[in-house]
Amino acid sequence: MRKRLTSVLAASILLTSGFALAGQLEDAGASAQRGDFATALRLLRPLAENGDAVAANALGDMYRLGLGVQQNVNEALRWFRMSAVKGNPDSENALGLAYESGRGVAQDLTEAIKWYSLAAGHGNAQSQFNLARIYQEGRGVAKDPSMAAHWFEAAAAQGMSLAQYNLGNAYAKGEGVARDLNEALKWFVIAAAQGLAQAQAALANMYASGEGVPKDLTAAVRLWLLAAPQGLASAQHDLAVAYFNGFGVQQDYKEAARWYRLAAEQGDIDSQAILGAMYDNGLGVTQDSNEAVKWFRAASAKGNDSAQANLGLAYAKGQGVPRDFAEAMKWFRASAAQGNSTAQDSIGVSYRQGFGVPMDNVRAYMWFSLAADQGNQGAAKNRDDIRLLLSQQQVAQAVELARKCGAAQFQNCE
Fold it and tell me: CA distances (Å), 59 to each of 9, 98, 128, 232, 399, in order?
């Protein structure tokens, strides 16, 4: 960490100075490079006090990072301000960051945009990226995809991989620029070649879908294998899907479970739900109902309808949790309201058997019908079976209840 900070400081002196490098400034940069911050500070301070913008910016970095001095945000900002008024783009960017984050100053997006704009105009790639992000999100300004794309392109042209990825996304989605998959592909390839996981994953998704390139699942897997070890949850999830289904790679449930777990531990909701199902069924892992419930609960709390249906089933069966039909119905209803046919069928079973609710064959028929209409074959059989127990009038009542529930998109159906 300290070595990285040393490099940051040395770069702020050496690179910013360019061909104007001379004397004390050059010696200060060399001192910082070898970690001799006391000497760097002694050489830089008189230069900064005499108005040298590069030296003032370097002092700002020293106080910001606590290199050779006690970390002091206010002192850092004082030196950055002295440098920025002389047009130093790194200091202008530093002030923009301070005002955007509210670190050392009151948060002020208008002031942040002012300093980012100055630095971006002076060619600072980080400010160009920050400005693009602000226009993209509409923070402190009206959302402006065209301006976002403009500044992403400026930063991308300077080699910033994250800007290249965002520019690729803009072309892929047609946000602020005309949709152009060839341009998207170009920028994703450039950013991916720099090792950016997001770009590698975006490129993998293009190969997986065949959008903009010939479909090639093997190439997609190869790219996910580059992105996933970097900790990108979406790539870990997609790689797990590939291993689970044998898409572009030999099917391997154990490997699928490994990548689902890594994504799930980062909070990926779909991975949590699928990992829960793998533990429930002993697929690629040792069967473990407690572990299944753990992951079902994590995904259910975030609204995943499949996990909610499975958590309801766990409570209904008493697997991994004490049997509790009322709790089962709570999760079935949450899932059914999102249109999950397994949960709708389970509510039908609950009404037919009187599990957690009063026995009610009309309501059972209603829920079986809703699930069957979505193609759930088990629900269709349950509906046909229970129809034998109902009068024509009861069937008509159940059909009308199902119609109203479907029209309300499964909301407030009980």
Answer: 9, 16, 23, 36, 76
